[in-house]
Amino acid sequence: MRAAAATQASRPHPEHCQLGGLTDCTEPAEIKIADSWGDSAWGCSAHVEEAILNVRSVFIASEELGGLDAYLHRSSQK
Ligand SMILES: [Zn+2]
Question: How far apart are CA 35 and CA 22, in angstroms?
Fold first, then answer.
């Protein structure tokens, strides 16, 4: 979790956690999560942990893993 936050810290992201739901969370957004449908959101470490526990298909979005976007555009990079 800490490593993911450090990796993503330099990426553009919203200032505050988006995972607070009806109660606005004012914690800084540290980690980006996504699901297999392409939805993604930034959240504080507490909410990200909660989301991962409660939503089965959610995972931490990490550019280190390559990402589908890079794969989809592989032919245009030649
Ligand atoms: Zn939060």
Answer: 21
How far from each other are the two terminal CA atoms of the chain, in whole angstroms?
34
Please, are residues 70 and 76 in contact by the beta-carbon 8 Å criterion?
no
Express each pLDDT in 40-66 by its tens digit: 999 999 999 999 999 989 988 876 655
Place of tokens 């999560």: 33
Residue 10 Cα to ligand 1 midpoint, Å, equals 19
Per-residue tokens: 2: 């800490």
Residue ranges per domain, the chain?
A: 2-77
How many angstroms separate the alpha carbon of residue 32 from the centre of ligand 1? Answer: 12
Residues 6+ apart with CB under 8 A from 11: 32, 63
User: Is 0.85 topped by the overall pTM?
Assistant: no
